[in-house]
Automatic annotation (TrEMBL):
It comes from the Bacteria. One of its GO terms (molecular function) is methyltransferase activity. Signal peptide: none annotated. Residues 46-143 form the Methyltransferase domain. This is Methyltransferase domain-containing protein.
Length: 227
């Protein structure tokens, strides 16, 4: 699925500001992610798939000053914002950015870790397993994978309760809240939400170790696994 119609220039420029109200969630996710990766080499090279505006890069670069980063994203507009933030932080010498997809990364370099945060729920479920195989091919032996996505069992008995809490989150700091039916429509038309167990199965099928489900905030889940 192409998301360039969503992540256009205007959206990209206001992305961070519009998501600032969710900063406690992202801060906790980034903190726990850094703990998951703390045993990587001091000169580790990290690949960020769907790097967006680069918040995970800035967070990890501050915690691990010897790490290098390669960020890939299909939206040139989001990358432009990312590049500006990286330069403002003075870490451009540690970062390479590429407009495109995993398969567009030239050469056969393998990475110590791959981050894929809030990306996979945009991929059609029938195609989603492929990204884990592509990631595995880009990882060193025993390399680490961190995945975060919106996930839910839409057939669960309490799904409407879960979606009401999700609606309250979306309305936080806003003047209006989406309805449960509007969220269901969004999940059907824009996001390919699947149960957490399905994501874990795809990771194992691609050859990763049993995923460690280390984070959940409402419908946002994150896992760590090793190649």
């Amino acid at each position: 699925m192409s998301t360039n119609d969503i992540f256009n220039s205007e959206f990209s420029r206001r992305y961070d500001a519009s998501n600032a109200r969710f900063s406690p969630i992202s801060a906790n996710l980034h903190f726990l992610m850094a703990l998951q990766l703390q045993d990587l080499p001091a000169d580790a090279h990290i690949l960020c798939v769907g790097v967006g505006t680069g918040n995970e890069v800035l967070s990890l670069a501050d915690s691990y000053p010897g790490w290098r980063f390669t960020g890939v994203d299909p939206s040139a507009d989001m990358l432009a914002v990312c590049d500006q933030k990286i330069r403002q932080a003075g870490i451009e010498h540690r970062c390479d950015l590429l407009a495109g997809y995993l398969e567009d990364i030239a050469g056969g370099e393998k990475f110590d870790a791959v981050l894929c945060l809030l990306v996979t729920h945009f991929i059609r479920q029938n195609d989603r397993g492929g990204i884990y195989h592509q990631i595995a091919a880009r990882l060193k032996t025993s390399g680490r994978l961190i995945v975060a996505e919106i996930a839910a069992d839409m057939a669960a008995d309490n799904i409407d309760d879960q979606l009401r809490r999700w609606a309250a989150l979306q309305a936080y700091g806003s003047t209006s809240a989406p309805t449960v039916e509007e969220i269901k429509q969004l999940f059907e038309e824009r996001l390919r939400v699947q149960p957490p167990a399905a994501t874990e199965a795809l990771m194992r099928d691609a050859g990763f170790s049993a995923p460690d489900h280390f984070f959940q905030s409402l419908l946002i889940h994150a896992w760590a696994a090793r190649k």
